[in-house]
Each structure stands twice: as C-alpha cells, then as structure tokens.
C-alpha cells in the first residue's frame, strides 16, 4: 500500500522536529526549513526536476548540493534521504508538516483576518491578544486581508475555527429573521 503525500509529510516532518528537539537545534532547523520552503515555493518545478528519471545523478547533484549549502546537518541529511528515496515531490509536504508541528509545540497560531479596511498595528495587537486568550495560544500571527464586502467588523479564521463578527453576517441574520 502506497502512502499519500500528506502521510509521508507528517512522518518525515515529525521525525525532523523530534530530531531537532533532541539535538537542541530546533531554531536553526526551523530557519533552514523556512528557507527551503521558500525555495520550493519560488521554484515549483524543483521537485519534479529532482525526480526526473531522464536526468542523470551528475545533472541533479549540483542542485542538491546548492539546497544543502549552509543548512544544519539535520536538514542536509533530510534533503539527501528524501532525494535518495525518490520522494522529492513530497518535500513541500514534509516542510509544511514540520512547520505545522513546530507551531503546535510552540503555541503559535496563524490567523487569517478579513476586514473592510486594513487593520492598524494597534488593532492587530489587540486582536492578537484576544485571540491568544480565546485559543489558548502563546503567539498569534495575523494575515490581514481587506474585503469591502465585509462592511465592518472582522472575520477570523484560525485553527479550523471561523469567528464571523462582520456587519455583513449580522445583516444576513437580520434578513433571515425578517423573512422567517
């Protein structure tokens, strides 16, 4: 039975987090994973190139070497192992799983906040504090998106939870009550 990309990502990502925690290199590994994640995001064909059967190992080696350059030993070994097992297509899932587990362990929650106007720094800080209390998180990072259709208030999406405090939803509720 073949494993799906998500399962592979979870297994490798969790293993990398456990190894980095055990070695006390969690912050350095986090920085390397974030940088590697950006490389894969900026170069969507990278994984396909590294798994391309028509290219020789000698053609792939310079790419692999550049990915490993300056990385911690744990990340270098991860890159090499994933390459050796022919799983480079799963690397974005592995990196995402590591970041997700890192955030869970450190109490970090990423919230998407939609508002009618851009939130000020003070508003984001106040919302972050309220969300941290409500979600039991140590740190909240806010990605603010502007959508004038919200009219007022905010819609927060975080940890599979949606908090809709928008005027648009309040008007929709009133409309439903009136229409019976």
Question: What is the ordering of alpha helices and beta strands?
Answer: HHHHHHEHEEEH
Secondary structure tally: strands: 4
* End-to-end gap: 52 Å
What is the CATH architecture annotation of the largest domain?
A: Orthogonal Bundle
Q: What is the CATH third-level topology name of the largest domain?
A: Peroxidase, domain 1
Q: Into which percent range does the helicity of residues fall? A: 55-70%
CATH superfamily of the largest domain, please? N-terminal domain of the delta subunit of the F1F0-ATP synthase
Walk me through the structure.
With 180 residues, the chain is an alpha+beta fold. The chain has 2 domains: 5-104, Orthogonal Bundle (Peroxidase, domain 1), CATH 1.10.520.20; 108-179, no CATH class. Helix content is 61%, strand content 14%. The chain is built from 8 helices and 4 strands; from the N terminus they run ααααααβαβββα. The protein has helices at residues 5-23, 26-42, 46-51, 57-68, 73-84, 91-106, 121-135, 167-179, and strands spanning 108-115, 139-146, 154-158, 161-164. It has a 4-stranded mixed beta sheet. Strand 3 and strand 4 (161-164) form a beta hairpin. Helix 1 packs across helix 6 (91-106) and helix 2 crosses helix 6. The longest helix has 19 residues, at 5-23. It is elongated and about 70 Å long. The termini are far apart.
